[in-house]
Every structure is written in structure tokens, then in C-alpha cells.
């Protein structure tokens, strides 16, 4: 396995699975084309290969997999920032990847299909979103991938998983636009202890815009300034209201990139119009300008998340 290939990973803990529910899902998936952009025969073949590989596979719903039993997931209690009412939360690991790709339309579809389908083949994945960036970044990144895991335990399993390696080696790495064609940021975050929030399912997660922000605090930045800046990032998003469906933020633990990026932020917007409105707000916000003064290696990327129904063949 190459150094480049090692970067496409992160982890999770085991969870109980409902096999009968999963089989029901497979049937509905084939009928409704829930795997985007895959032909019917390819979907049937893929689901058969998955069912043969796992004795108790998990239930996939849209872009997420849901287990009926969550008692193995560590939970904590925090205070909601606005109401002060204690809110039960769960710790999760969010994995961000930005790619520099040189692909034609068919190669892009196959790459996105392969990466998307991993959530059905690898039990450690909670949910996935991915897509072509709305705008190529100044540093040349063209595509993004978001994957969520339950804990650090599954990291090595996912890292070494044959299906992941096969997708990376056949559909991703050969089409890098330059030798170091990706960057990754992994961080632990807390989300509300709610099925929709943890597994990113439900109407509000079916479509919208996924936004990545990765950066490093400049050398010598005081710890209190770091804390204040992170709170500013959170508060700007909290003030924007319900048009932001979810935000997670945390310290980068991906060993290969900690020297370049210290933190990552993922924000799901309810719609494209909400995303563009937020961008306008951010451009004139003096508190965000203050944050930008103390960070470097600042990269942002966004892609549209489409409803599954739009992917029917």
C-alpha cells in the first residue's frame, strides 16, 4: 500500500445489526435505484457481493446506515448554546477528503459510484456524501468526500479493507491530476444523540450543500486565541439559523496531514441558496476576518448533495 493510498481512511466501533431489515432494504434499493448512477444489473451484482461478504450487514438508508442498537456508542451530555438546556450528544469521527482529479464524465461517475458504494460494503461507515466541487479550489482540488464513523476502533479495519483499497487503486489514484492528489483531515466531534443527526438521515439531509473548511493555526498563536477563534467559527454558524442543518468541528488527528492542517469543519446547508447567502454574510463579518488573520493553509470546498430520487436511471 502506497503512502498516498494510506490517506483514504478513518474509523469506528462494532454495532449490532438487523439482518432482516437490511434484506428488506436491499430489495427496495434495487427497485428504487438507491445507489446513485448505477445500472440495475450493477446494483443487483453489488448487493449480492455485499450480502455474501457479511453475515450481519447493516441497514443502509439513503446516504447513511442505521443500527437499531446504539448502546455501544459513547455518549456525553453538553449544554445547548442557545437554550442552556442539557443535550445528550454522541462522539463521532468525521473524515474529510479533497481530491485533485483529471477525469472524463464516465471516469468521474465510476469513481463517485465506487466511493459512494463503500458505505454499503463496509460496516464501519455510518454515512457518506461526495461530489464534484462547485468551484475548483485555487490549489486544484476538484472533488470532495465526507465519511462518518462511530469511533477510532474501526480506523484500521477501514484503512486495510480490501474493498476500499480496490476502489482507491482502480478508480481514484490512477486519475490524480498530480502525484499527491488528495488531502485528508480527520477529527472527533460531538453531535446530538438523535438518529437523524448521527446518521445524517431524514428530509433535511437528503439534499443541500456540503461545505469543508480546513486550516492550520499559525505558529505561536496563543491557546486563548485558538479557543476564541474556534468559538467564533461555531457562533457564526449558530447565528445563521436553521438553514444550517449540522456543523461539526474538531482537531485534525490524521497523522499524514497534522503538520499542514490543525482543524477541520464540515457544514451541511439546507440548500444552495442558503449556502450562497452564508458566503455573503461571511465576506462582511469582521469576526471571520479576525480568524483569517491567525490561520494558514486555509482551504474551502463545497459540493451539492442531490436527493437520491434524482439519481434514478
Automatic annotation (TrEMBL):
Give the Stress-response A/B barrel domain ranges: 93-187, 209-313
Domain of life from the UniProt record: Eukaryota
Q: Which InterPro entries does the record match to this protein?
A: Dabb (IPR013097), Dimeric_a/b-barrel (IPR011008), HS1/DABB1-like (IPR044662)
* Pfam families xrefs: Dabb
What binding partners and quaternary form does the record give?
Homodimer.
Q: What is this protein called?
A: Stress-response A/B barrel domain-containing protein
Amino acid at each position: 500500500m502506497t503512502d498516498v493510498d494510506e490517506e483514504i481512511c478513518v474509523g469506528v466501533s462494532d454495532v449490532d445489526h438487523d439482518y432482516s431489515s437490511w434484506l428488506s432494504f436491499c430489495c427496495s434499493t434495487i427497485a428504487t435505484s438507491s445507489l446513485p448512477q448505477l445500472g440495475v444489473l450493477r446494483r443487483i451484482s453489488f448487493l449480492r457481493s455485499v450480502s455474501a461478504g457479511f453475515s450481519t450487514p447493516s441497514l443502509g438508508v439513503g446516504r447513511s446506515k442505521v443500527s437499531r442498537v446504539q448502546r455501544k456508542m459513547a455518549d456525553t451530555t453538553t449544554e445547548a448554546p442557545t437554550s442552556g438546556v442539557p443535550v445528550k450528544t454522541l462522539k463521532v469521527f468525521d473524515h474529510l477528503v479533497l481530491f485533485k482529479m483529471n477525469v472524463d464524465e464516465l471516469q468521474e461517475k465510476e469513481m463517485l459510484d465506487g466511493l459512494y458504494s463503500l458505505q454499503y460494503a463496509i460496516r464501519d461507515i455510518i454515512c457518506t456524501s461526495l461530489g464534484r466541487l462547485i468551484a475548483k479550489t485555487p490549489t486544484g482540488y476538484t472533488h470532495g468526500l465526507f465519511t462518518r464513523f462511530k469511533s477510532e476502533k474501526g480506523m484500521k479495519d477501514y484503512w486495510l479493507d480490501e474493498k476500499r483499497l480496490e476502489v482507491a487503486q482502480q478508480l481514484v489514484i490512477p486519475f490524480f491530476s498530480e502525484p499527491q492528489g488528495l488531502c485528508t483531515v480527520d477529527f472527533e466531534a460531538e453531535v446530538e444523540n438523535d438518529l437523524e443527526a448521527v446518521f445524517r438521515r431524514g428530509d433535511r439531509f437528503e439534499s443541500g450543500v456540503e461545505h469543508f473548511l480546513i486550516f492550520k493555526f499559525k505558529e505561536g498563536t496563543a491557546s486563548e486565541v485558538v479557543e476564541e477563534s474556534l468559538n467564533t467559527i461555531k457562533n457564526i454558524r449558530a447565528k445563521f439559523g436553521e438553514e444550517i442543518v449540522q456543523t461539526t468541528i474538531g482537531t485534525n488527528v490524521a497523522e499524514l496531514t497534522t503538520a499542514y492542517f490543525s482543524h477541520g469543519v464540515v457544514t451541511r446547508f439546507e440548500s444552495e441558496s442558503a449556502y450562497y447567502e452564508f458566503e455573503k454574510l461571511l465576506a462582511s463579518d469582521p469576526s471571520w476576518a479576525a480568524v483569517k488573520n491567525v490561520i494558514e493553509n486555509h482551504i474551502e470546498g463545497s459540493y451539492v448533495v442531490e436527493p437520491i430520487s434524482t439519481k434514478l436511471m
